[in-house]
Amino acid sequence: MTDNRRPLKIRDQRIMTRFAAWLSQRSVTPNQISVLSVLFALAGAAALVCSGQQLGNERSLWLIIAALCIQLRLLCNLFDGMVAMEGGKQTPAGELFNDVPDRIADPLLIVACGFAVPGFESAQWLAWLGALLAVMTAYVRVLGVSLGLPADFRGPLAKQQRMAVLTGACVLSAFDPLWHQPGLILWISLIIIAVGSGLTVVRRLVGAYLRLQRRGIE
């Protein structure tokens, strides 16, 4: 499992290791943290949908809530693995809880973003395309592992980068009233997510193909 773990520099920060150690000493399981990540994603998605039905300060508030929920979801993704590995709380079903919630959370947030920009007709299909490609990035990675290849977490738009784009877009869009272009930044973020995720899928597929070809030659 450690060989297929996403490399994250934040995992080595002292505050993160201390909090993970604190969680490990409590009656908190990695699987519970994984499920909590989906609940935060659901709350973030709801906030995005609500932002698309509001104007002015109310819209800005919902967008900030969405950004906060996205980051809390990512923190759950970080701590479930740390509590499992460093805290010695691995379970036989841990891999399911480690991967499946992400496949739920990503599409929830990206599709909901399409509802946050009702003024752009292409937002809905961009959101669904981005969500599909986001799931495909993980599918290609897991497929490669099932074929005996090392996990490929390359971007340019892996999970962390996708959520960073979405978080940044939510925060910037909270200031939409200042430049009178409501929804423009979120719409651009959907294009970035769709294009970047597509490139990520292609890059991982090509990488898997080349590794399999080399293994066949050897």
Share of helix, binned: over 70%
Strand runs, count: 0
DSSP strand content: under 5%
Oligomer: single chain
Q: Which shape, going by the Cα principal axes?
A: globular
Uncertain runs are none
**N-to-C order of helices and strands:** HHHHHHHH
Estimated radius of gyration: 18 Å
Separation of the first and last Cα atoms? 25 Å
Overall average residue pLDDT: 89
Task: Summarize it.
The chain is an all-alpha fold and 218 residues long.
Q: Any overview of this molecule?
A:
There is one protein chain. With 218 residues, the protein is an all-alpha fold. 74% of the residues lie in helices and 0% in strands. The protein has eight helices and no strands. The protein has helices at 14-24, 30-51, 56-85, 94-115, 123-146, 159-173, 176-179, 184-217. The mean pLDDT is 89.
Topology:
Blueprint lengths: L13 H11 L5 H22 L4 H30 L8 H22 L7 H24 L12 H15 L2 H4 L4 H34 L1
Question: Main attributes?
Answer:
218 residues; mainly alpha; 8 helices
